[in-house]
Write a structure and sequence with these properties.
Strand order of the largest sheet: 4-3-2-1-5
Strand content: 15-25%
CATH class: Alpha Beta
Radius of gyration: 13 Å
Structural class: alpha/beta
Number of domains: 1
CATH topology: Hypothetical Protein Ychn, Chain: A
Shape: globular
Number of strands: 5
Largest sheet: 5 strands, parallel
CATH superfamily: DsrEFH-like
Order of helices and strands: EHEHEHEHE
Helix content: 25-40%
Length: 120
């Protein structure tokens, strides 16, 4: 792959526009042959739960569920912030397939070599 790319997403149902645009950009990055990671933190960890993304569809964009599915199918990775997940008392048995709950060290490991990033 031609380098890495990381998107830190902090929004979900509280700002569906940001959540959607983050995955539009993530899809563009993975389609550009970047080893791409979306790190879900703060409120975005809710997107790791089945059923949440299905209710998000910003006008002019594909539904968020479709964007997330396309991203994962193209080889993108979705990491979920463990402390943020636990704080919100979410269900590990209700994770969207392809998401992985991780600590900060896993994010640092991914970004340890020159890795551009965006935050939404």
């Amino acid at each position: 792959m031609a380098g890495k790319f990381c998107i830190n997403l902090t929004c979900s149902t509280d700002n569906t526009d940001r959540a959607t645009v983050a995955f539009v950009v993530a899809n563009a990055a993975v389609a550009s042959d970047k080893d791409t990671l979306v790190f879900l933190s703060i409120e975005a960890v809710r997107l790791s739960q089945k059923g949440v993304a299905e209710n998000i569809h910003e006008e002019g964009f594909a539904p968020l569920k479709d964007l997330m599915t396309s991203f994962l199918e193209a080889g993108g990775k979705i990491f979920v912030c463990s402390p943020c997940f636990k704080k919100r008392k979410l269900d590990e048995n209700n994770l969207v397939e392809g998401t992985l709950i991780v600590g900060g060290a896993k994010l640092v490991e991914f970004m340890s070599e020159s890795c551009p990033s965006l935050s939404y």
